[in-house]
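Priority: medium. Attachment 1 of 2:
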């Protein structure tokens, strides 16, 4: 994922930090902070990756990392980086439609919990999602907490941030995409034919998909529930839906 140097952010945690060191250009990393006294094997890995990018590793006490990560579980590694830059929607759409005939786009309607967004990015990466679209307002953006929760997926899945989701659906429909939303009332998700150019829309953790956006859906899908709780965590629901998408495509392609 590209970065801009206008602001600073932090990536922390071993999976997220090591993945960032492996995949990102050195110009996006301002500083590497390693906790004094970590396991020699881990320290050697960090020093090796940093040396390859001509980055200096600063060994610091745990309390300094605690402050940088603002109480997050840094696991002995914090990177000070340029802040996350979002993918350009037009450019990315042109690329993914050129690369494959049936791209998958995930649209998130006002996901507010950064841990949910991080979890969703992990599922998106695992199931081959080509682009994630989020709104600029009333939703979490790409942050250090999202990066940590995504365990590196944030570096591999393009995320575009748009002003108006409804307007964006119209742009995508003009390019031949079909929209599928999630709701308490709809077609059983196991009957979802997810072939073709697909956009899966996941609603807000509490309110679901907004009414105006819901009107743009071509089909609503539901996850049947037999227990007492009638809703799933947004990250869990997205993971289930994306794996059904993958199963639908794989079975129908054989």
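Attachment 2 of 2:
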């Amino acid at each position: 994922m590209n970065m801009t140097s206008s602001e600073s952010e932090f990536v922390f945690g071993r999976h997220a930090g090591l993945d960032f060191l492996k995949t990102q250009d050195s110009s996006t990393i301002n500083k590497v902070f390693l906790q004094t006294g970590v396991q020699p094997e881990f320290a050697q890995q960090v020093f090796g990756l940093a040396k390859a990018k001509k980055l200096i590793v600063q060994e610091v006490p745990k309390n300094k990392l605690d402050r940088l990560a603002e109480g997050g579980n840094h696991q002995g590694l914090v990177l000070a980086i340029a802040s996350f830059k979002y993918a350009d929607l037009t450019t990315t759409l042109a690329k993914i439609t050129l690369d494959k005939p049936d791209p998958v786009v995930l649209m998130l309607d006002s996901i507010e919990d950064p841990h949910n967004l991080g979890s969703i990015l992990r599922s998106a990466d695992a199931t081959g999602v080509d682009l994630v679209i989020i709104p600029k307002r009333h939703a979490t953006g790409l942050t250090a907490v999202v990066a940590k929760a995504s365990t590196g997926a944030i570096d591999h899945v393009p995320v575009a941030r748009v002003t108006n989701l409804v307007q964006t659906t119209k742009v995508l429909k003009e390019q031949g995409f079909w929209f599928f939303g999630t709701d308490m009332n709809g077609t059983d998700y196991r009957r979802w034919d997810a072939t073709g150019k697909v956009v899966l829309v996941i609603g807000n953790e509490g309110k679901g998909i907004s009414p105006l956006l819901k009107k743009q859906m071509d089909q609503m899908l539901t996850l049947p529930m037999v227990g007492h709780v009638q809703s799933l965590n947004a990250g869990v629901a997205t993971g289930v839906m994306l794996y059904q998408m993958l199963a639908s495509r794989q079975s129908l392609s054989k």
